Each structure stands twice: as structure tokens, then as C-alpha cells.
């Protein structure tokens, strides 16, 4: 990330992934429109296209929101996380096409500017059946535009990781706005409860996944008590840490990953500098701690990325006493080298 910025580095896997994604989206639109014409021959193709684009976008948004908790529950879903940005941009484009078709269909043939018509055409907020649901769609699309426009690593570096992540957490506000947009639109235009039921099922599924993943991680976020060993914290036995992997502990309000590798132990902040990915869920590859999200790497003893990259994470002092791992909860400045502890040193 710190070395240079490029357009997407296309390779066979990315081409395959994006071809599958585009094919799936086009296939969904074709099936939706074909089934709609067969079941409701009186409906216009334009209306079916609007509904197909809208439902495709919100289904894809549910998939995107499910990927994070699914990866925490089962690492086999990690390949989806590597290319989640592609899903997000595709979802935005589907939503943008849906909005454009709606503007042309319902607002472009009058004397008023179409965008003004969208925002001011209906301002009756006294009745649920007449509430201007378009406002929520505009809000959601604006947030999704900002996220899609800043999805490149250039913006991640220049906005800084905390600001970038805060901006992209806006996906939950966009999700809430879209739920209101769809729910109110269905109430006003549909008598079939099917859309509302499917929307409720989707919301319940997303909530259940986030609760389940949070419940699974709750133990790791419990603060560890300080031991008499000069402010060191007894976190676990040496053998509790798998070789070339880590265990994560909450120390001083921060998640700390203790890695065991080549007969040594090193402790780093578990927060990757790229997208705040969980370093502690990664592994040591060729002597480097490798983030499971996008493969960013750090030297375990210094917390620094190998040259020519310049990303760094805080390190922590660690020692072994009587087969137990002790960690100083006070972080060192990012990139500070700390001598690794010998696994056999305190046996």
C-alpha cells in the first residue's frame, strides 16, 4: 500500500471472479425479467427492469454484510472477503442503474427538473402510505457512491485507515436507509406480502450472523489481570498457541496477537494497517505475519512491513516463565523491535 498505487492488478483469479460476478448479475436480471413477463404479462418491461435492478442491489448488499461475520465464524469464507470491494462497486452500479431507470420512468417527462421532482414531488409525511420513500433511496445511493469512489487503496492511505474505516462503516446507515426505502415503497405499491417477508428474513439473517460472530469473540475481549511479574499479564500456556499461528488477547483495551514461530514468541497489535484486518487470525508465512484479509505482511519482531513497504504496527514485550506466556500490555511505538521470547526459555 505504501509503495505505489496501481489500477486493479488483473490476474486469472480476478478475471474469473469478476466474470462470475458479472455473469451472475446479468443472469439474475434475465431470470427476474423473464419470470416476471411469464407471471404478469400485463406488466411493462421497464417496470420489471426497475424491480430487477433494485432487488439485485439489495440482495448483493445482504451478501456483502454477511461476509464479515461469516469469515469470523468460518475461515473458509475468507476468499469472499479478499474481493469484497468488487461486490460493493457492483452493488452500487446496480443501485445507480435502478435509480436512473426510476428517474427516467417517473420523473423525466414533466416540466420540472427530474432530480427536483424526485426530492420535491412528494412531501406528504403525515401518512405512511404516501411517505416520500425516494428520500431514503437518495440517501443510501449517496453513501454508496462515496464508498465506491473511495474503494481504492489510494484513498485508504490518504484518508488514513481510521477515517477510511469510519466512512465505510456508513454501509450500515445505507442499509437502514435502503430497508426504509424498500419497505415503504412496497407498502405503497404492492399488495403481495412476498417482498416484505423476504426483506424481513434478510434483516433477521444479517442480525443473527453479527450476533453469532460477536458472541464467539466475546471471550477474547475480556481484559486479562496483571500478574506480579512487573506489570506483565499471564495470557496462556506456550503450547496453547499453535505453531506459526497466534492467539489474541485483550490487553489495555487493545487486541494483542501473540505469535509462535520457529521456537520463538512475538506480540503485535492485532489490527492490520491496511483495513484494520485481524492480524491475529492470520499466520506466519516465510517468517512474516500475514493478514488473512488481503495478505499484508509484517515482521513479527518489529511490526514493520518488509522493504520497500513502510507500514508498521505496535509491538509488545513478551516473556516465558514456567511454560506460561507473559505480555506487557503497554504498547511500544509502531515498528519498535522487541527481542522474541524463546519458547523453551522459561521451561
C-alpha Rg, in Å? 25 Å
Unreliable residue stretches: none
The share of residues in helices is 40-55%
| Element-by-element helix/strand order | HHHHHHHHHHEEEEEEEEEEE
Number of helices: 10
Number of domains: 2
Shape: elongated
Structural class: alpha+beta
Task: Give the percentage of residues in beta strands.
Answer: 5-15%
How many individual β-strands?
Answer: 11
Distance between the termini: 40 Å
Please give the largest β-sheet. Answer: 5 strands, antiparallel
Give the averaged pLDDT, no decimals: 85
Element layout with pairings:
Elements: H1 12-39, H2 45-73, H3 78-82, H4 84-107, H5 114-120, H6 134-149, H7 153-159, H8 161-168, H9 171-189, H10 194-217, E1 233-237, E2 245-251, E3 254-261, E4 264-269, E5 283-285, E6 288-290, E7 297-298, E8 315-316, E9 318-321, E10 324-327, E11 341-342
Antiparallel strand pairs: 1-10, 2-3, 3-4, 4-8, 4-11, 5-6, 6-7, 9-10
Helix pairs in contact: 1-2, 2-4, 2-10, 4-6, 6-9, 7-8
